[in-house]
Amino acid sequence: MGKRQPPPHAEGWRGADLPGVGSRAGEKWDSSKGAFPHIWRAAGGPLPPVSPQGAQVWIPDSVEVWRVAEITRGYKEGDAILHLRLEDGSALAYPIEFQLPPLCNPDCLSGADDLVALSYLHEPAVLHSLRRRFLEANAIYTYCGIILVAINPYKPLPIYEEEVIYAYSGHEMGDMDPHIFALAEEAYKQMVRFGKNQSLIISGESGAGKTMSAKYAMRYFTTVGGCLGDSSMEEKVLASSPIMEAFGNAKTTRNDNSSRFGKYIEIGFSQAHVTGATIKTYLLEKSRVTFQAKAERNYHIFYQLCASATLPELQGLGLCGAESFHYTCQGQCATAQSTNDAADLESTRHAFSLLGVPEADQLELFRVLAAILHLGNVVVRGRDRRGDGCFVEPTDEALGLFCTLLGVEASQVMRWLCHRKLVTAGETYLKPLSRQQALDARDALAKHMYGQVFRWMVSRVNRALRSLEGHHTSIGILQISAAHRFEMFEFNSFEQFCINYANEKLQQLFNLHVFKLEQEEYVTEEIPWVFVDFFDNQPCIELIEGRLGILDLLNEECKMPQGSDGSWAQKLYQTHLGSSYFQKPKRPTDAFVVCHFAGKVEYQCDGFVEKNRDTVPEELVGLLRASKKFALLTELFLEEGDGPISLQSRRSSGPRMVGRPSRRSLPGSQKSKKSISSQFKASLNRLMEMLGSTTPHYIRCIKPNDGKKPFVFDSRRAVEQLRACGVLETIRISASGYPSRLTYQEFLERYRALVSREELRSAHEKQICSLALERLLQDPSKYQCGKSKVFFRAGQVAYLEELRYRRLRAACVLLQRHLQGSLGFARMLRRTRAAVMLQKTLRMVLARRAYLRLRRAVITIQAFARGMFARRIYQQMMWHQKAVVIQAAVRGWLGRPRYARLRGAVIYLQCCYRRLRARRELRQLRVEARSVEHYKQLHKGMEIKVIQLQCRLDEQAQEKQRLVEQLSGLNVAHAEEVQRLRAEMQRLREDAARDAQVQQLQERLAELESHSAKNSLSQEVEELKQRLAEVEAMKLQLGEERDALAQRMLEQSRDLEERHQRAARESQGLLQELEEERARYQSLVQEYARLEQGYENLQDEVAFHRQSTLRRSPSSESFLGSESSYLSSMSTAPSRDSSDQQAEGLEERWQLVPEGPQPQPSSEVPQNSGVGQDPFEKAYLLLLGQLSAVNEELARTREELRRSKTTMEPEERKPLDFLKRRNIAEMLGLGRSPEKVAVDDDLKHAYDAVQVANRLLASQLREEKQQHEEEIEGLHLDICSLKQLSQQQAALIQDLQRHQGQEGLQHHVLRLKQENLELTQKLDKQERTTLKLQKQLRAYAKQIQELTGKCLLKREATGPVQELAASAAVPSCSHVVPSLAGPSQAMLAWRMEDEGRIIKAIITDYKPQSSPGALPDLPAYVLFLCFRHADHCRDEPRAHSLLDAAINAIKRVMKKHSDDFDVVALWLANTCRLLNCLRQYSQDESYCQGNTARQNKHRLQNVDPQSSCRSLGALAVQLYQQLIRTAEKHLKPMIVAAMLESEPIQGLSSSSCPPGHRRSSAAPAHTLPELLQQLSSFHAVLDHHGLDPSVGHQALRQLLFLISGTTLNYLLLRKDTCSWSRGIQLRYNISQLEQWLRAEGLQQSGAREMLEPLVQAAQLLQVKKVTEEDAGALCSLCTVLSPPQVVKILRAYTPAVGLEERVSPSFISRVERQLQAQYGGESSQLLVDTSHLFPVHLPFTASPLHLDELHIPDALNLTFLVQH
Q1: Which DSSP symbol is given to 421?
Q2: What pLDDT was estimated at residue 15?
Q3: Can you tell me whether residue 69 is helix, strand or coil?
Q4: Closest CA to 1536 of 1605, 1619, 1618, 1607
Q5: With 0-12 CB in 10 A as exposed, 13-18 as middle and 19+ as buried, what is 825?
Q6: With the C-alpha atoms ordered 1029, 1034, 1035, 1039, is the resulting torsion angle positive or negative?
Q7: Averaged over 1329-1338, what is the pLDDT?
Q8: Which of 568, 696, 1144, 1741 is paired with 120 by a 20 to 30 Å CA distance?
Q9: pLDDT tens digits, residue range 1413-1455?
Q10: % residues pLDDT > 90 (the chain)
């Protein structure tokens, strides 16, 4: 395979010695090019004689390992110095000794997801990319080919939630950011797709995070794979971790939870589901049990027991603090900061219980562990100074506890701790041990005991995780322990040698796998393949494990009786000193050096032989094995296959016990012994075989610093681990070929700017790329075109990026030039227009000023002229007015006498004429007074007038009385007010008098003060002053009281305001509590639904097993098959049960049918009912009972038909529509002859016609007749009253014409005529209405007569048949539903046996398509009408039974059609309608306020629907949740592709992703229009089924929350989506969603708020992110996004190459601080919980439909229901 042997002095990849890691062995300096040819050849084209000035290179550094420097002066061939400028601005003259420093990658490639995608592949590039991703982006995972590099952040990150697991599930490895879940998904997918076993190999230093990585991988497999069969297998697999950590992990100086053993967890899968697991361990660090270095601890389990010593069950173990035991106090670190030992013990015991380990076995295990601790405290004393013998005090407390706990004799333990038994050919000797030998024997026993405990614990865990069915495929997780990394210390012993040997084997497997994958890639793409050299460590492995190798010689030395470390070292020197991988140190000590792949390691031979033998005192082990007190001890020490116990044969000079002396002691069981190295080699070979049969996936954990500080990167420590873990070897193998690879589509999208127009004319992408690369690179060896990809040598992508940058820069310069020119021209035009505008304005101002001056002058002149003219006109008018006045006075004086004379003459003439007319009227009245008719007419008119006057007088009297009462009330109020005013006046007068008195007193005081000489008045002055002070004090007190009152009023107003605010807050809190309670209730409903589903599954399984165990004959099977459907349709139980319970329930239900006089089969049913009765016999008896009941009903029907025949009247017939009623034969389902079927059909039709016609026609005719008679009678009364009123009005008019004035009389007559006209019109209208109603009545009578004739003909035709049926009928008195006479009651009459048929017709077999035009919630109305009938019959059990059966039927339909959104929406709408009907027609007045009078007549009277409402509410919540889950199944595959991957704005983000990022090149599976179409279909379905709009709004709000949350989660997990162009695309997609909401009228539904986090994320990608002001604006913008989400987007933001700058870490830190200050440091998760369901609110909506108007289509087959 072209393997190369490295030189003997090779020390792996040393960056300080080999700056260009890609350099080849034996490559010489090329003086013509000034470097190794392959390094600078990557820059593209032949190396110019002068290096490019401004290029950046890497130079070695003692602190940071590598530093960036810029070339400041051109380099020429032969120059010995390279002039550089460092990052701090200082100049550096870098001497060139062997080769030029490696080049830096372009900035767009730095921080790439895959290190292999770097253009320049070398150590500094890898280190820089890892550091940049870790510190700037906080990205702890990075791909390096097939390796996932994981850097321990030493800080919990929110990237391992269950939402992240489901986000990575089902995606390709390059679709999302690097993550351990992505690697686990790749392994899981390959296992499912190809059926091949997979393995995850996790390695790294102590504290690098291997244990947590293994945990996360296991959690991913158990979550994604689920469990098959045992539902708790997932928990068991995860529960094994705390147990393994407690017994196999310990605190070291580098890690608080370091694994001290190798572990291989094999998770078994069957049908892609987890079936079990197996744990295999190797090389447990048993030496830690007896010795710990400073600042380290023993295994966790010991400290857990010590911390929990006060527990009652551990009281008898004699435990105390960890510092009291020798085996736990040597490290002087009894506690660890990151652990809680007492809580960890509870977790360990819980895990044991979960894995099936009984409590008794746990306590026995803890007893053995406590005995190990007490064994370490046993004190061994020496007998003399020479140390030949030792002893243990019999009173040693620790020894007593050890013996008590394990049930062994203390004397035997004391004896064999201090002595050793030697067996020769015929004698046995006891050899006393020295104190040190006894201590070694004690420690060996403790290590052996713990090793056996660990082995037993692993076997019990495997027993619990083992699956009985086995598994088809598996995924193994190899966690190379922290003790099994490549180690190189100052003192390296046997343990380090085994560890490094294992790492050599693993590195060889890794190299072969990497080389194989590289070769497969080239072969697949048909690239010419040249075998590259790679480092092969097979010679080093042969040195260790080969024939006469190091291990072989060590095992041979261990078999020698006198074998020692020194003799073994000499054998090594003699055998391997000539090997290039073996060296002898210069120091004269027993040591040797092995050249491993990661460097040279010197091993000290001291202790190799003894450790390899692993001697254990067999006598002490025999004592433990012989203990009969505890069974666990026997189980621990009985089997010795895994770790055989050897007894070293020694010569002895001690006292002889038995037998005679021998020349030489025999080796005992030496032949059966297996050394530690042999065991380790065998287990390692098995592990390699297992890994070789799987597809490996590598995870290299890196420890960034030794101080365990979060996000601190130590470059020196990191590069040491990179050199040792094989990452750089992967880089070197990739760099030797074609490391950079792009698909043709990605190449064209990225470098389309470099392709010419002629090249774009080609038809195929491959041809376009070939032509472009031939022109750009010119050297065919620098690239290769494969089938679907183009491959580049190292550095060529950087060269293409440089060309692309230059082309884009030139294009930008051209655009800027034209843009600046157009902007300058526009600026010039604006300035020209501004100058013209200024000139125009200035000229206008000057002209306006001149105009205003001229105008003011003209106005002034005009004012003076007009004033002069006005004065003249005024004078003339004044003269004219005075003349007119004089003339008027003269003319008036002359006209008045003439008018007086004329007026007197006219008055005299009028008096004479009036006297003449009065005399004539007097004579006429005297003549009329003598006639009788006159008196009568006068009396009649006067009577009417008197009546009217009397009425008016009465009204005036009432009005007067009312006014008198008001006046009296006003007088009383006035008197009270006057009294109050008088009192106030009196008080004011008193105050005035008091003020006057005070004034007088003040005056007197002043007088008295002026006459102070008078002593007699001094006392009075004092009194007056005192009184004045009292008055002033009173005034002040009154003022204070007033202020206090005002303050109290202010406080009361404040209190009222505070109470109002408190009440508002309390109401808000109550609302919030209501929402929480609703959410809690709905979660309980959801949990109940899940448990109910599980119960039904178990019930189905039990029924299936029970059915499979029944032995049925062919006849019974056929009978069961024919009758099972009928029994299922008749079932009314609330929940499904077994067949026996169904039969018993139906039997009890049929027992309600009374027996007839003749013996019926149903009478035997109660006698044969029993627990052990055969279910088929029960079914047969039930059918017989049903047959008898049907026969009774038929007989009763015939009898009623016969009776109704004689009493039916011709006019009481029903139209033909009422003749279509139920068919008896269809209801019964019994086989009869055709003649009998025809007879029964005729009988039933006739019976229905008679019965229904009698009820409905009679009531209808009675109502219509009564209504018409009342209307006619009322109209006649109105006519009579109107005629009388008309006569009275005529008489009144005549009377008024005689006796009243002309004007008032005419007005009154006109008003009365108008009223009379209106009444006449009303009368005519009523007469027309009467004629119309009479005509309709005659038409109805005619139709009734015709229908009656038809019914009579039908009855005459069926008369003989009825008589025959009546003669054959059997009288019975079965239960009959009460008849409903009178008006419509809006109900459907049904019987108990019809329940199954009702449920089947309107739920099980209901299809809305079969009834076009029907109401969408028709099943709910039908159920409610049946419920009303049960309420009318006062049959509450029947009503509840119907609803329970309906609920169970809906659940079964949902279980069958759980993925059908249409069906779920249909039954959700019907459930809500039925719930609202029960509320609307209940007795609760709060729901009946909007009912009409007709609806209130249909309210429930006897049955309380509250319990049914609760059941329906829970069902509605379940249906709503199922609706959301169904919609999510349809939407989830579309969201990411439609919202993030689709590009509605073409070409915007085609070049945003740098070539170093992995991304899928396939077109998106779904687009945004498809997503909108799916949402529109959901909305249309909800509207079609009549679901309440508020519920539909809540559902769409939930779906938009899912869209927003899923999109945001994938945006956070995919770095390639965090760019400016992607933000534009995302904002456009969100606007399309908003437009869809507006088009559907959903603006007020609250769905828009669900998109706000996504809107803010899109805005965050578009805003400027440079200055401090930008940080403040960004924080104020992101009000909905959490701080981790904002920081994650900023860290993952990918700037456009050449157009944007990368977001600086200082800016991100500033934003993070501001967000923490803004949110108060609250912890929030990174990803959105898309599984969260908002609590649904089901509002009450009254139905506007009247129940008596409901039409039931015939397609529902509900003809057996009678509508009333």
Answers
A1: E
A2: 32
A3: strand
A4: 1607
A5: exposed
A6: positive
A7: 64
A8: 696
A9: 778 888 998 999 899 889 888 888 998 899 999 999 999 998 8
A10: 13
pLDDT at 896 over 70: yes
Q: From CA 792, how far away is CA 785, in angstroms rounded?
A: 9
Which value, to the nearest 10 degrees, does the dihedral of the CA atoms of residues 920, 926, 929, 931 take? Answer: -90
pLDDT for the residue numbered 1540: 85
| pLDDT score of 912 more than 80 | yes
Q: How many CB atoms lie within 10 A of CB 483?
A: 22
Separation of alpha carbons 1690 and 1619, rounded Å: 10
pLDDT greater at residue 1142 or residue 1678: 1678
- 8 Å CB contact between 347 and 341: no
Render pLDDT for 36-87 as a digit per residue (tens, 0 to 9). Answer: 333 333 333 333 334 467 788 888 888 888 988 988 887 777 777 888 888 8
SS3 of 1306-1333: the string is HHHHHHHHHHHHHHHHHHHHHHHHHHHH
882-888: Cβ within 8 A, 24+ apart: none
Q: Please, is 1041 exposed, middle or buried when counting C-beta atoms within 10 Å of its C-beta (0-12, 13-18, 19+)?
A: exposed
Cα 508 to Cα 1503: distance, rounded to the nearest angstrom? 82
| Distance, CA of 250 to CA of 1058 (rounded, Å) | 60
Give per-residue burial for 1157-1172: e unless 16+ CB within 10 Å, then b: eeebebeebeeeeeee
pLDDT above 70: percentage of residues in the chain: 72
**pLDDT for position 1576:** 92
SS3 at position 103: strand
Mapping DSSP to helix (H, G, I), strand (E, B) and coil, where does residue 1154 land? Answer: coil
22 CA to centre of own chain: 49
**How far apart are the C-alpha atoms of 1321 and 1315, rounded to whole Å?**
10
- Which residue is associated with the tokens 């690098």? 208
| Cα 84 to Cα 60: distance, rounded to the nearest angstrom | 13
Of the candidates 22, 16, 52, 18, which has an alpha carbon nearest to the alpha carbon of residue 37? 22
Provide the pLDDT for residue 1288.
60
What separation in angstroms does the CA of 910 have from each of 354, 905, 919?
134, 9, 14
Q: What is the pLDDT of residue 1192?
A: 63
Q: Greater confidence, 727 or 1723?
A: 727
Q: What tokens appear for 1465 in the block?
A: 């929406």
pLDDT at 1238 over 60: no
- pLDDT on residue 356: 86
CB 178 within 8 A of CB 148: yes
CA 1282, CA 1319: separation in Å to the nearest integer?
7
Name the percent of the chain in helix, strand, coil, to the closest 5.
60, 10, 30
Pairing of strands 695-702, 147-151: parallel
| 476: β partners | 199, 266
- What kind and span of H or E run contains 402? helix 397-406
Q: Which positions ≥6 away from 1496 have C-beta within 8 Å?
A: 1488
pLDDT (average), residues 477-488:
60
What phi and psi values does residue 787 have, to the nearest 5 degrees? -75, -40
CB 1543 within 8 A of CB 1516: no
Tokens of 239: 């529960």
Mean pLDDT throughout 946-959? Answer: 77
**Is 114:1556 a contact under the CB 8 Å cutoff?**
yes
706: three-class secondary structure by DSSP: coil
Q: List pLDDT tens digits, range 537-549.
A: 788 888 888 888 8
Tell whether the model's pLDDT for residue 860 goes beyond 90.
yes
Per-residue tokens: 794: 């190292």
Rounded CA separation 136/655 (Å): 74
pLDDT at position 23: 34
